[in-house]
Amino acid sequence: MILQRFQEQPSASTFTIPSIQRILSYWMQGTWVDPYSGRNSPAHITNDINPEVGADFCRDAVDFMMQLESHTYDGILIDPPYSSRQVLEKYRGFRPCHPLTRIYDEACRILVPGGKIISFGWNSNGAGSKRGCVKKAIYLIAHGSQHNDTIVTVEEMVQTRIPLDTPTPQSVEEG
């Protein structure tokens, strides 16, 4: 696993930070989705609940993800507001963000095997092994002084979940 640290000035626009641009150019191949896109997302399919952003779609992040076809996309960027204060600043007048568990569930559903999830925040939890993901890299972007680091977590989908309605070999033999 890669563990690397960079020193950069903070920016409200995550994807304009030079070290993050380099990280994304290394990992992003194929078709990518961003449910919290903001104005500068490098993803091919973008969504943001704020209509002023100019994303491809303007929906709630979970509702947007639920409309996407299963096992179709090569990667997903997950860069939601990191705190309640950021939710208020970024989404004034809009419905608050969902817990990330629902976003990660949908992300793992839409990814092809081997697909990547790149998460941004103040922790490195990511989607996790219970969803079939393995951490490939963690990057710390230190912003100095009184600013929290931005933690970038890269995970790979190594095992897709079997839908509950899919018969298992045992249930087929019994039937």
List keywords for this structure.
7 strands; 5 helices; alpha/beta; single chain; 175 residues; Rossmann fold; seven-stranded mixed sheet
Q: Total helix count?
A: 5
CATH topology: Rossmann fold
Radius of gyration: 17 Å
**Count of all domains:** 1
Shape: globular
CATH superfamily: Vaccinia Virus protein VP39
Number of strands: 7
Give the assembly state of these chains.
single chain
Class by alpha and beta content: alpha/beta
Average pLDDT, all residues: 87
Q: Could you name the ranges where pLDDT drops below 50 across 5 or more consecutive residues?
A: 166-175
Helix content: 10-25%
| Topology as a string of helices (H) and strands (E) | EHEEHEHHEEEH
The profile of the biggest β sheet is: 7 strands, mixed
| Distance N to C terminus | 44 Å
- Trace the largest sheet across and list its strands: 1-6-7-5-4-2-3
CATH class membership: Alpha Beta
User: Judging by the overall fold, what is the CATH architecture?
Assistant: 3-Layer(aba) Sandwich
How much β-strand is present in the residues? Answer: 25-35%
Quick structural overview:
Helices cover 23% and strands 26% of the residues. The chain contains five helices and seven strands. Strands 1-6-7-5-4-2-3 form a seven-stranded mixed β-sheet.
Descriptive notes:
With about 180 residues, the chain is of the alpha/beta class. The protein has a single domain (about 1-160), classed as 3-Layer(aba) Sandwich (Rossmann fold). Helix content is about 25%, strand content about 25%. The protein contains five helices and seven strands; from the N terminus they run E-H-E-E-H-E-H-H-E-E-E-H. Strands 1-6-7-5-4-2-3 form a seven-stranded mixed beta sheet. The longest helix has 11 residues, at about 100-110. The N and C termini lie far apart (about 45 Å).
